[in-house]
Design a protein that fits this description.
The complex is a heterodimer of chains A (114) and B (119).
Chain A: E1 4-6, E2 10-13, E3 19-21, E4 23-25, E5 31-38, E6 42-51, E7 54-57, E8 64-70, E9 73-78, E10 87-94, E11 104-105, E12 109-113
Parallel strand pairs in A: 2-12
Antiparallel strand pairs in A: 1-4, 3-9, 5-6, 5-10, 6-7, 8-9, 10-11, 10-12
Chain B: E1 3-5, E2 10-14, E3 19-21, E4 24-26, E5 33-39, E6 46-52, E7 60-61, E8 64-69, E9 74-79, E10 88-98, E11 105-109, E12 113-118
The chains are: A mainly beta (114), B mainly beta (119).
Chain lengths: 114, 119
């Protein structure tokens, strides 16, 4: 069965800390994505990657960076966490070969920055 | 830029009744795709149904069907015979254009509709 695994379900960090959110997929997918979900705003794309070491900005990249050193792993980095980055973070992946390939999501990481 | 609009923040439906969740979209692309996802209170995102812009038939998957009206740019989700387990957030999403031919298709999401099924 298809699986996208996010390393933490809940995370509490302090303002100014460097935060790493990890995501691993076992489907050999080319594309991986990081979304942020906030009530009333839906899902907003932060960054995506279509190949190893390749990354592209989404709609709200400010304050975030990403790393993709291996095909199966995509990390989201908050260089200096701030309270307005308190949110639910969703990682997803899909195949780059089929236009109708749905995104497969992890269970999410709820990050609280105090 | 692509945009997805879901105008119903919340909806109620009686168990066993049918319900329609609205979704309109805006794009200048000729080739695009539309997806619906369900998010129960547990938080997981579950893919429900897909409709391609060139598909002539409306998509169906079990109790889910997509009422696709291309000229009106709408892609409403119809759930027949609602069940208590259908209570969840529902998101409409649109596939963006391929990025640099690399096969990377982003999805732009609407803000969601919270469906509550009443026994």
């Amino acid at each position: 069965d298809v699986k996208v695994t996010q390393s933490s379900r809940y995370l509490v960090k302090r303002t100014g800390e460097k935060v790493f959110l990890e995501c691993v997929q076992d489907m050999d997918h080319e594309n991986m994505f990081w979304y942020r979900q906030d009530p009333g705003l839906g899902l907003r794309l932060i960054y995506f990657s279509y190949d190893v070491k390749m990354k592209e900005k989404g709609d709200i990249p400010e304050g975030y960076s990403v790393s993709r050193e291996k095909k199966e792993r995509f990390s989201l980095i908050l260089e200096s966490a701030s309270t307005n980055q308190t949110s639910m973070y969703l990682c997803a992946s899909n195949s780059g070969h089929y236009p109708n390939s749905p995104l497969h999501f992890g269970n999410g990481t709820r990050l609280t920055v105090t | 830029a692509q945009k997805i609009t879901q105008t119903q923040p919340g909806m109620f439906v009686q168990e066993k009744e049918a319900v329609t969740l609205d979704c309109t979209y805006d794009t200048s692309d000729q080739s695009y795709g539309l997806f619906w996802y369900k998010q129960p209170s547990s938080g997981e995102m579950i893919f429900l149904i897909y409709q391609g812009s060139y598909d002539e038939q409306n998509a169906t998957e079990g109790r889910y069907s997509l009422n696709f009206q291309k000229a009106r740019k709408s892609a409403n989700l119809v759930i027949s015979a609602s069940q208590l387990g259908d209570s969840a957030m529902y998101f409409c999403a649109m596939r963006g254009p391929a990025y640099s031919g690399a096969g990377s298709y982003q999805l732009t999401f609407g803000k969601g509709t919270k469906l509550s099924v009443i026994p």
